[in-house]
Write a structure and sequence with these properties.
By secondary structure, the protein is mainly alpha-helical. It is built from 13 helices and twelve strands. α1 (3-17) runs antiparallel to α13 (408-417), α5 runs antiparallel to α6 and α5 (124-139) crosses α7.
Length: 433
Amino acid sequence: MSEKELWELGFKIITTLETESGILASGRDEVYGCIFGRDSLITSLALLRSHEQSKNPYFTRLVRKILWNMADLQGKKINIENGEEPGKIIHEYRPTNHKHLTMAEMPWFLDPDKVMRNYDSVDSTPLFLMTAHNYLRASKDELLIEELLPNIRAALDWLLNFGDTNNDGFIDYRFHPDRTHGGLKTQSWMDSAESLFFETDNSNPAYPVAPVEVQAYAYVALRMWSQYFKSKDAALAEALDTRATDLKEKFNQTFVLQGKKSLTLAFAIDGNGKKLTAPRSSMGHVLWAVWRPNGLTDCILEESHIPALVRRLLSRDLFVRRAGIRTLSSRSLHFDPYSYHNGSIWPHDTEMLAEGLENFGYTDEARCVRQALRRAYQYFKTPIELFVYTKRAFDEYQGSHCACRTQAWSAASLLAAFSPAEPVAPIAEPELI
């Protein structure tokens, strides 16, 4: 398949996943055929990146719809049974098809209207803030942002007053000890139970857990909206700026693991301050999450560390030159290429690494990563959720469920990775189902 054909495939899949209120995480008949906050927002950020090249207004129209839906579903009260908090962006929204969760052995919370709303996601809120800001930059739609300002302020308030549950300076999550309903015990994007571990210690990490990539998202969200509010609400702008400065300083003191010849980032810090040190692809997200003050590019990681992190991410134990980036280093004691998050490869995660490399001028390296990603898409011929690569061959993931064949953020990654060089003529909005 040519790059043009891959782009057209990505576009086709996105249109089939669109709904009246946003976008489904996977196909309607697949296990994740519903609205997910994290997936919707990472998809949106990829669509906005594609819009930079294609100038297709369909992308900004779809992102506008997604933002409205996220705002509508935003948390309004404290409910420990589903993780809801004021200002928090939803994790999973299932009006129907939730019996496998709400009638499980430990049933997930169901609202009185028989709709399942779950908020077990620590990263959706900063991703919402990043998406809203990037949407404004792409669309110049100041009216929408003004209408969303109460939601944006609420999301910022969540970061400042709810996101750090133990006051150690990091955005974290916990599973409330008094909760009687089910939900996610791991609440970052690698949200399986297997993904949270100490490399050489069999004890369980203590709550609250602060994931590496979430600090990067939060830092960028704080900086973006501090800049926005400087002329509108000086006190809020100063509070956001101070929080961002403190977060960056503490992050570089705590998450950066400097060896004699290499550098890596802890993938999380637990509630006892212990570092989870196995090298994961999620540390590449710190290069993906950027803002651009005065034409510069800034992220949570100190500039002096970026070259070493790039080398670490492109090392053979993480980056497979024929397939993409592994979720976990092959040198880890927990590595399993057939696992969901401990060695499998996720196309959207690989594209986020490519974008991160591109953000800091590593264009040849980004091209190499996308060549690997292209091989995977060409093999599976669909924007698959995740896959296995072992013994120099691709294979299907078949664990708790078969990998979804049409995944929104994987399709959006096709659009971001292979955007046409010339602007694409506007395409009519699809008929919605």
